[in-house]
Amino acid sequence: MENMPTEPPHPAKDVTHHVGYLLKRAQAALRGAMDQVLREHGLTVPQYATLELLALHPGMSNADLARATFVTRQSGNVVLRGLQEAGLITRPATADHGRARPARLTEAGQTRLAAVQSAVYAVEQRMITAIPTRRMAALLTDLDHIATALEE
């Protein structure tokens, strides 16, 4: 059995100053701010993320959308069903091949997405104003490296 480190991997006063804790705090704050603005538009974070992704990549499957929006396939299917019932997306009743039923935004979905984007982008603007512009590219690279290191 591998020896587990008994000391933190970097200097910190306590757990509230560890990288993981601070990432989780930032994620929770972002989620709360997103939930608040999306609620005013009748959407959840996974629904909004799905609309954004379908605007960029029409025809994505449930499995691909679930992965990209950080939910299970089952939850992704619930999100898609809700968006379809609201008339924001369309999916064929049956799959052409395999089990994938590609989703696409409807005109109403495009309209809803356009209406909510400025509110969501304002949340991101609030978030990034805390970071000096000269450090933004490095932050994005570092966050990507952190995710990649943990996914390996």
Number of helices, counting only DSSP H or I runs of 4 residues or more: 6
Distance between the termini: 20 Å
> Spatial order of the strands in the main sheet?
1-2
User: What is the alpha-carbon Rg in Å?
Assistant: 19 Å
**Sequence of secondary-structure elements:** HHHHEEHH
Q: What is the approximate shape?
A: globular
Q: Helix/strand-derived class? A: mainly alpha
Tell me how many strands there are: 2
Mean pLDDT: 91
Oligomer: single chain
Contiguous low-pLDDT stretches (5 residues minimum) are none
Largest sheet: 2 strands, antiparallel
Strand content: under 5%
Percentage of residues assigned to helices? 55-70%
Plain-language structure description:
The protein has 152 residues and is an all-alpha fold. Helix content is 62%, strand content 3%. The chain contains six helices and two strands, in the order H-H-H-H-E-E-H-H. It has helices at 19-39, 45-56, 62-68, 73-85, 107-128, 133-151, and strands at residues 89-90, 104-105. Helix 1 (19-39) crosses helix 5 and helix 2 (45-56) packs across helix 5. The longest helix is centred in the last third of the chain and has 22 residues, at 107-128. It is globular. It starts with 18 loop residues before the first helix and ends with a helix.
